[in-house]
Amino acid sequence: MKIVHPQNIHYEVVSLYISEIRFSEANYLHNIGTVQCSISDRKEFTPEKLTAHELKTWEINFQKTSILDITNSPLMVSGDIKVELTQKSSRKMICSFWVNTFFMQNDAVRIIDGSTVKFMHTLNKSEIDGAHKDKDHKSFSEDFK
C-alpha cells in the first residue's frame, strides 16, 4: 500500500524486526520487579478507536535488567505497532506507546552492524502513554525513555 501524504511523503508499509527494547531511567519499573511487555499490531481502525491485536508477550524482570533482548528470535512487525508494559500480577497497564514502522525507519538513528542495518528509535517520557501524565516525576523520572 502506498499513500501520498500532502507534504509529498510517499508512505508505504515497512516491515522491521524488533530485536531489543531498552528502558532507561526506569527506577519505578525496578521497584515493581517483573512486568509483562506485549507487542501488538493494529487490528482495525475507526475514527473513534484504534484496536490492537497482540502478537507476543515477554516477561522482563527489571530488578535484573532494563532491556528486553529478543535478538535470538526477533519479531517481525509492520505498520502501526503498540508496546505495552503491564504488571504481571494484576495486568494493570503501566505505560504504552504506538509507533509506525515507516516513521521509525525514517526517523531513527541508523547503526550498521556488519551487513545488518539496525534502527534505534528513542521515545521520551512525554511520548509514552501513562508515563507522560507523571508531571511531578513521582513514578517515572524526568529522563525516562
Automatic annotation (TrEMBL):
<protein>
    <recommendedName>
        <fullName>C2 tensin-type domain-containing protein</fullName>
    </recommendedName>
</protein>
<feature type="domain" description="C2 tensin-type">
    <location>
        <begin position="1"/>
        <end position="145"/>
    </location>
</feature>
<dbReference type="InterPro" id="IPR035892">
    <property type="entry name" value="C2_domain_sf"/>
</dbReference>
<dbReference type="Pfam" id="PF10409">
    <property type="entry name" value="PTEN_C2"/>
</dbReference>
<dbReference type="InterPro" id="IPR014020">
    <property type="entry name" value="Tensin_C2-dom"/>
</dbReference>
